[in-house]
Amino acid sequence: MKAVISNQNAHGWVTIGDVQEPSPDSNEAIIRVTAVSLNRGEVNRARQSATSVRVGWDLAGVVAKAAANGQGPAEGARVVGFSRRLEGWAERTAVPVQDMAEILEGVSDIDAATLPVAGLTALYALERCERLAGDRVLVTGATGGVGHFVCQLATAMGAKPVALLHRAEHAAAIADLGAEIVVSADGIALANMPKFRSIVDGVGGPLFAKLIEALDMSGRLVTYGISGGLEATIPIRAMLLSGDGRVDGFHLYRESEKETASKGLTRLMRLMLDGKLKTHVSVQKDWSAVGEVAGGLIDRTYAGKAVLTI
After folding, report:
1. CATH number, domain 119-253
2. Whole-model pTM?
């Protein structure tokens, strides 16, 4: 069987190689994969791994063999899900039934494949915030997969998204989302704006200090990514002035224990069918181009999501 594996000598640090067929537990179905979408986390993991390590979270496909315990979608059902073991980018893979959902009629495999990591992170991160209706939500990384969904979901929840962008030319990628746009690579522009009760951050790094300074009294800063760097200097005075404001670290594996990915994915697809959520697939290619597309993701040569078909 073929699957995407890490390769330190390949373009994008990944290639397609031979792996063993999946051996499912009783609560897992075997999925014949038709489409996968890429996230920076997977590619960064491949960069740091030895050769031949399996890669891939997001997938859509068809149930080739239903779970032995009788739960979950039946054989032949179209499904979307994510692989906690990072074995999703393969011809076939085993996925626990709680980590997949049947694809609703009217949703394509391509669009569904973008939802697991980016969509669920956006949904669950926003739902940690409080009193969103009528308020402003600061969104970093808005041109990425998660940020693009956060802007739309914030609007659906009655909030006004404010997208903090690194460069002005990035504005075109989110021009149709109705977000207020602030261009400030270092976040200094936030000092001249009203404080935010809700901030969803996927950048981290040096920008993180400015986000804490922008946090309102009793505000919530949910941080899910570190694309801007692993470390930040924390301004203690700003923390004191935020009163009982808080910073939440977010990890999807933990969050999906509170509500299964199956339920969250179904909610996201309903929003898509209602016209309240749309995907931004800027790259769609055969999975033979995985190295090229993975390299472009790290080099930020495209905004939104990249989907590969198998």
Report:
1. 3.40.50.720
2. 0.95
